[in-house]
Design brief:
Layout: E1 7-10, E2 13-16, E3 24-31, E4 36-43, E5 50-53, E6 63-68, E7 73-78, H1 79-83, E8 87-90, E9 96-104
Antiparallel strand pairs: 1-2, 2-3, 3-4, 4-9, 5-8, 6-7, 6-9
Length: 105
């Protein structure tokens, strides 16, 4: 399970703070008026190679374009699907990271 240590306001968006990663960690920033989100995901020193994320703040009935920066993978999903653990990341090596971009399609 990913830990959420708190939230901070950044203009009209919300960012969730991280602890220094010693397991799987993720930080999501969502800008509600632009219907855009970015997730920074980190695999630290853990044997678990894959993690499924539940995205927050999206509109359930909107369709979003999801792009994994390093994996060079894109797909579309509804906000409802993304909020039900539809974003999966995987890294073969420890101390790896990924940036996931989500925007209204």
């Amino acid at each position: 399970m990913l830990r959420e240590s708190g939230s901070a306001s950044l203009g009209k968006g919300v960012a969730r703070a991280l602890h220094p990663p010693n397991q799987w960690e993720a930080l999501q920033f969502y800008h509600p008026s632009l219907h855009r989100s970015v997730i920074f995901c980190f695999r630290a020193r853990t044997a678990e190679k894959r993690k499924t994320l539940r995205v927050r703040g999206l509109c359930a009935d909107h369709v979003y374009q999801v792009g994994h920066e390093d994996a060079n993978k894109t797909y579309q999903a509804t906000g409802q699907a993304l909020s039900r653990e539809e974003v999966t990341v995987g890294f073969p090596e420890m101390n790896s990271s990924e940036i996931i971009w989500i925007e209204k399609a």
